[in-house]
Amino acid sequence: MKILLVVAAALIDADNRVLIAQRPEGKALAGLWEFPGGKIDAGERPEDSLIRELHEELGITVKEACLAPLTFASYAYPDFHLLMPLYVCRRWDGFVMSRENQALKWVRPRELRDYPMPPADAPLIPALIDLIG
Hints:
Blueprint: E1 2-11, E2 18-22, E3 33-34, E4 37-39, H1 46-58, E5 67-76, E6 80-89, E7 104-107, H2 125-132
Parallel strand pairs: 1-6
Antiparallel strand pairs: 1-4, 2-3, 2-7, 5-6
């Protein structure tokens, strides 16, 4: 089975809310909410990939020192196995904005379960609740 390595961020604002993005129409799992991030390119480190993806998707600049690994997801989809480290980020430069037509929402960790997420993302929620309540 093919292993797909992706990386995600839990951006946490000053009010301890986490940013989630809704997958747009036309993409797999459209309409579901997820943590921002994306695929890791060949030869790319996870941190570099996440910095690139956050800039492309949200228009923000993140320094590697501001990324802290929190947990990871390992999930078997029918066609591939997804491995996804989740980093926490509390500091960035710029203003978060949707650059890929995805809806964005700041949510308290305990409210994350109220938003339908891909099966690989949902197991990440308890670690965020433990971290920030």
